[in-house]
């Protein structure tokens, strides 16, 4: 069984036991979180919601907050002596999917 969920403006295909990295949410580690289901896939077939599947929910547990890989932002204008170098590390929340309730 798998489900398509929406979190942080993105969609994820998850099944029980998966670990996903979503954009940072303000929750303490070891707390539970639930997601609405957009699509549900079982052995019988696929159920597509309009926009959500009624009665379906995905439960997860917040593991910890992590930072992504550093990216370099470099701005440059030719012949104007303008250079600007800046780094950025996106913050993510690591979530373990505990159950899919259909």
Topology of helices and strands:
Layout: E1 2-7, E2 10-14, E3 19-23, E4 32-41, E5 46-48, E6 57-67, E7 71-77, E8 82-88, E9 91-101
Antiparallel strand pairs: 1-2, 1-4, 3-9, 4-5, 4-6, 6-9, 7-8
Total domain modules: 1
Low-confidence stretches: none
Global geometry: elongated
What structural class do helix, strand and pairing data support? mainly beta
The major β-sheet equals: 7 strands, antiparallel
Number of helices in the DSSP assignment: 0
Helices and strands, in order, run as EEEEEEEEE
- How many beta-strand elements? 9
Helix content: under 10%
Quick structural summary:
With 102 residues, this protein is an all-beta fold. It is 0% helix and 64% strand.
């Amino acid at each position: 069984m798998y489900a398509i969920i929406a979190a942080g403006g993105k969609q994820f295909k998850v099944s029980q036991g998966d670990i996903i990295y979503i954009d940072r949410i303000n929750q303490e580690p070891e707390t539970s979180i639930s997601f609405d289901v957009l699509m549900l896939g079982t052995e019988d077939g696929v159920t597509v919601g309009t926009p959500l599947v009624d009665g379906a929910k995905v439960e997860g547990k917040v593991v910890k907050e992590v930072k992504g890989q550093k990216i370099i932002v470099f701005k440059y204008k030719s012949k104007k002596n303008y250079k600007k170098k800046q780094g950025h590390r996106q913050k993510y929340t690591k979530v373990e999917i505990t159950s899919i309730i259909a």
